[in-house]
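If you are new to this repository, start here. Below is one unmodified record pulled from the training split, so you can see the exact layout before writing a loader.
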Amino acid sequence: MTTHYIDLTLAPDPEVSPPHLLGALYERLHMAMVQHRIESVGVSFPQYSLAPRTLGHRLRLHGQAAVLERLMAENWLKGARDHVRAGTIAHVPAVATHRTVQRRQFKTNVERLRRRRMRRKGESAEQAAQAIPASVERRPNLPYVWIRSRSSGQPFCLFIGMGPLQSEPVPGTYNSYGLSGTTTIPWF
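And here is the target side for that same chain:
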């Protein structure tokens, strides 16, 4: 059960945009969670908004106080301390509601999907175009963070979706990005 949280707030920087800083911070967090095999820390973005589409300037970590203390004692923020202000670990407000914060994946590029199908199935461009019509392409309207895959080295957009507000928490684990489609975080 998540009882505590800590806010990491981006410091203004005239040379680096907030989305770029958030991506770098989130990559560092992901690496630390993978390295230390942490599945009990969830993340949220308190300034999350669909209009305008943004994750905001704050990353909130949720978990047990001891786990958050151990994570923050690690050196994963090295090199980012000039750009990030870490708050103190605090109790979650008793009146908080709960929700899931999850990764959302979209089929965003029809041409890429067709090329992939041609490689995998040995089809011609015409066959792939018939199998994958232009209507499958979706233009996501969710906020995202731009990060680099540790396995392939390729940059990608990690789209973030929010589940509905719930009155009761749902316990469980989070992935190495601190996200889950079933386990909730306190939302306040």
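Two things worth knowing about this chain: The mean pLDDT is 91. The helical segments are 18-35, 65-73, 110-121, 125-131.
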